[in-house]
Design a protein that fits this description.
The protein is α+β, with helices and mostly antiparallel strands. The protein contains six helices and 15 strands. A hairpin with a 2-residue loop joins strand 4 and strand 5 (about 115-130). It is rod-shaped.
Amino acid sequence: MRKYLTVLLLITSVSFGASRVAYTRPGLMMKIPTSSVQKAPYLFRTGFGAELHNFDPFNSAQGIYFDMELGRNFTFGFSSVQTADTTALALLGATSYTPPVEFGFHLQQRVYTYNNISLSIGLQDIVFQNSENGSGGGLSLNPEELSFFAVVSSEKNLGKYYLNTFMGFGSGGFAAADSISSNDSSGTKAGVFMGLIMNTPYLEKWGGIDLVGEFDGTGINVGLRIPLTSDYRLNLGFTHIEKLPDWKSRYWKGHPGITLGFDMVVPRAGGRSLTRGSGAPSPFPETQLKLPGTGQYESLSSSSDSTLALADFAVHTVRDSMKMLKNEMRNMMVQLASIQQQSQFLEDSLLAMKLNRNVDEKNMNGAMRHLSRSLRYFYSGDYRAALQEVESALDMNPNIALAYARRGSIYYKLGDIQRATINWNLALRMDPEYDDVRNILKALHENRLKSTSVVEE
């Protein structure tokens, strides 16, 4: 009886190929599809994923993948997976069963975006499977794995953390398959899925560590995406943790496992490795913001635009202020040069005044010496010599009232009354308080002038 039960378990288990290996589908989650409001910041992404279902005997599923986002918001992915041995004999380590190799294609189209919400639809797990146990027959399409799906995403900024949430429904592989005995193919298989990914500030310079949690329609998966560099990332986690108590009891399509993966991205042309979360560089790092939780980059929101506009306005204001300050400094330098020039001019003028004063003093002293000699000649009756000395005094300083008065007296002695009157008037004009000259002119006018009344001092 036990032998027949084992054979029955083998037959029923073979029909379930564990093709949905974690981290081998397009997007950043483990097994569910994702959506984003922005174009992927990388040219393409590639890597491998593995699920360890048992260590003794060793049992695992592994695969490689490639995905890229094409034009018009269309995403294409390819994966090649060798499934795990889900037969009952695998528990005993006595199976010779060789799991099939599957080649899968994954197509997705973003059809709607609004603010930080996006909607995508797609066709996942177009799986071509070779014959089990290598029995020949080539590749054949496995319609049970074919999955139509629709997924809605929401992206939020939580300070230093970025959160993406996903919710959707799909057919085929997203349908619940909890037991090896659920082999009923009648009706339409469908299920819902949901998940979240939170990007943290740890290892921020390489993009930050991502925390992943999801319900894939069959079970709950949790994981970590750890950046090794800005372009390379290590993926760890557990699949279907709710079934961990039955780890060694039996295998089924949704068997729990330890997941290990590695991915790398190739930046778009002109992009730089300034990633936060996905390990993928932004194609426009100067004008992009990271999508919460995904590490991808999005265009600046209206609030960010206004912030950048204010910052740009502030920069231009500071720049204009610096230009004005530079012009003011230039004007101040011109004014300073003008003040220095004026100061130099005043110094030159002061020096000239000092020189003129020295010259005037020297001339005054010389003129007074001539006037002194002229007085001696006048007293001795040598009026021609006295007149010559007065002329010499006036040549040295023409502003001496005494010289004009003396010359008037000399002309009076020489009998030239007209010239005498002219010189006396000149002396009185230069010195209105010259009373002696005024009295002489008054006496001359009244015709009572005597020769002894002329100016001799």
